[in-house]
Amino acid sequence: DRTVVLITGCSSGIGLHLALRLASDPSRRFKVYATLRDLRAQGPLREAAQSRGCPPGSLEMLQLDVRDADSVAAARARVTEGRVDVLVCNAGRGLLGPLEVQEAGAVGSVLDVNVAGTVRTLQAFLPDMKRRRSGRVLVTGSMGGLMGLPFNAVYCASKFAIEGLCESLAVLLPPFGVHVSLIECGPVRTAFQEKLEGGPGGALDGADAETRDLFSRYQRHLERIFHEAAQDPE
User: 22-73, pLDDT tens digit by residue?
Assistant: First the structure.
């Protein structure tokens, strides 16, 4: 049987490239369920799959919103093989700017997607893996889960939480035959920066002049880092 892989957050970036990489593997060992919060965003993935020559039946796109437990359950029910061998929790949101100007809705959204969304996804798929005593879980973390990064307070808080979540599971799950991997990414060239919750910086008018100046300098530094040192998703 092929290895059944389900990946969250496949509209762009790491999720999209991973789905393509596995679905186009010459060995045809993988059946990939690439999930997206909004299927209207599937165009880039579908076009790339055609250009990469993904074999028929190797890639299927499903709607899955990690903020909605019913959506996660519905996606799980549409996996025709009745099992997921590899679960990749990749969906995430960023939030950049001075903490004092971030709106409560933006803060809640990032924590809901990055932390609670990962928990919802794991709750949906772990029981079957434990029952079958077989499975792999990969979670997209961040170097922002290892150290605090300026102007990324809420994002880092969410990724620190993911560290604790995965470390706790990594201790518990091996006797059930389930292995957990946490990928602590550095800068990667994706659309992540363009999809920041609330835009880059939030409502900066609410910050003092010195903080606004520091943020402007940090943005220039960040642009240079992504230009000079960022990895491609591949």
Answer: 999 999 999 999 999 999 999 999 999 999 999 999 999 999 999 999 999 9
Number of domains the chain is built from = 1
Domain interval for residue 50: 3-229
Q: Which of 141, 82, 86, 138 is nearest to 114 (CA)?
A: 141
Write out the H or E segment, with its range, that includes residue 105. Answer: helix 104-111
**Amino acid in position 76:** R
Instruction: Name the pTM for this structure.
Output: 0.94
Residue 234 in any domain: the answer is no
List of E strands, the chain: 3-7, 30-36, 59-63, 86-89, 135-140, 178-183
Q: Which of 30, 151, 155, 215 is catalytic?
A: 155
Three-state SS letters, 178-227: EEEEEECCCCECCCHHHHCCCCCCCCHHHCCHHHHHHHHHHHHHHHHHHH
Place of tokens 């889960």: 145
| 33 annotated active-site | no
Question: Does some domain include residue 212?
Answer: yes
Give me 112's structure tokens: 């809901």
